[in-house]
Structure formats: C-alpha cells, structure tokens
Amino acid sequence: MLVHPERNPMSRLTTPNEGKPFAGWDWSKPIPAPLAFHRTPVIEAWTDYNDHMTESAFLLVFGDSSDCFFRYIGIDEAYREAGQSIYTMETRIHNRREAHIGDPLALTLQLIDRDAKRLHIFHTMTSEADGAVLATAEQILVHVDMQAGRSSPFPPDLAERIAAIAAVHAVLPLPPTVGVPLGLRKK
User: Fold this and answer.
1) What is the value of pTM for the model shown?
2) Could you tell me which CATH class the domain 32-169 is placed in?
C-alpha cells in the first residue's frame, strides 16, 4: 500500500466505504441514470456556529458520493495499492439551501463527459425530507499512475465500464449550472 511510513493511517480522513472492495461488474444489471449510491444524515461535526452544515462538509459529502462511484466502477483499495487512482482536478459547489443536524441527505451522480484519462461528473444533493436540492457539485477528475506521478489512460476494463455509464447517462438533461462561468452578474 502506498502509505507514508511516518503517517498513522488511523488518523487520516476516511470515507464511509473505506475498505469495501469492488463488488465486480454485472453487465446484466441496468445502470442507474443518474447513479444514486450515497445517503447520509447530517452529523453534528459537520455543522458550524450558524448551526448549519459547513461548506467544507458539503465537499466532504460530495467526496463520499464520488467514492461510491469509484467503487462501483472498480477503483478501490486494491486498485490504489496497484498504483493507480483518480484525483480531483477541479470542483465547483453551488449551495442552494441549508442543512441541519439530522437532516437526511440523498446524493446522485451524473457522468457528463469523459475521455481517455478524465471524467466530468455532476452531483446533486437533495433533502430526503422534501426532495429540495440543497447543493450541487461539478467536478473534473483525472486517472493517475501514482508511481509515475502523472495522468494515465483508464485501463480497458475500466474504460469499458465508464463508456457503458456514459451511454446510459447521455439521455439525461444537462444540469443548467454545468460549465457556467463564475463571476458577479453586471446589472
């Protein structure tokens, strides 16, 4: 495993699925559109002095949703121990509503685009209580050869699974905030 010898693995941030291996790909099962693998309640540690979920906690929960996706397509601890992973290149979060301790969250993930080395994904976080969209996150991810320290193409089996998801997700509407420039609107 690629771990710094001076670092205690128990002291690092983990995901809820840490240690859960890739379950294998079943080509006979339908691919959800969008993917919906992550649900969680807001915990007290994620809240701030305003008594609602912090901006960093939104990113944490979106990251946990990404981890569910990674494990679905075959990227788990064994994959990383073999020297490959996915790194985040860019993330943009749109906060829509507050979330408070105990609020039940449901996340979906849509594969927007892909190429030989990169993925463009879109998360939606909703309240399970009323279905309201609380936040969205748009991300660009890159496949990395950790030994070489640079991007690398997805291996054929992983690329094939990603292509299957992309084909199913191609019929989904493009979320309205995808690719929208950041800035102040002039009046």
Assistant:
1) 0.91
2) alpha beta
